[in-house]
Amino acid sequence: QVQLVESGGGLVQPGGSLRLSCATSGSIYSPNDMGWYRQAPGKERELVARITRSALTIYADSVKGRFTISRDNEKNTVYLAMSSLKPEDTAVYYCNTVPQNFRWGQGTQVTVSS
Fold it and tell me: Taking Cα atoms as reference points, which of 40, 56, 17, 58 lies closest to residue 48?
């Protein structure tokens, strides 16, 4: 069964760090650019980080310099290291291909609050 499984979210204070993981199958991972998306309450889902098959990375301006996306080709896993977190980073974070081609997983909640 094709699926995407996100993990690693939690509650963190402003300025803190988290590392998210996205496990997937090779049929999703290998041929595609992968990305991390997020959806905050009352807002549309947005793409915040993208990594190509050749490991080129692209970031939304709102996270540039604070978030780092990476991929482990042996594990078919994509990571998002987040630092200097801000309250406005609070959202449910999802991974998927770029463009999105597969059903969304359950996501992982990130809450930045003191």
Answer: 58
Q: Tokens at residue 50, please?
A: 């993208």
**Cβ pair 20, 105 in contact under 8 A:** no
**Residue 29: pLDDT band with limits 50, 70, 90:** confident
Q: Which two tokens stand for residue 70?
A: 């990476």
CA gap 30, 40 in Å, rounded? 29
Q: What is the pLDDT of residues 40-79, one digit of tens each?
A: 999 999 999 999 999 999 999 999 999 999 999 889 999 9
* DSSP letter string, 43-102: S--EEEEEE-TT--EEE-TTTTTTEEEEEETTTTEEEEEE-S--GGG-EEEEEEESS--S
Q: What is the 3-state secondary structure (H, E, C) of 87-108?
A: HHHCEEEEEEECCCCCCCCCCE
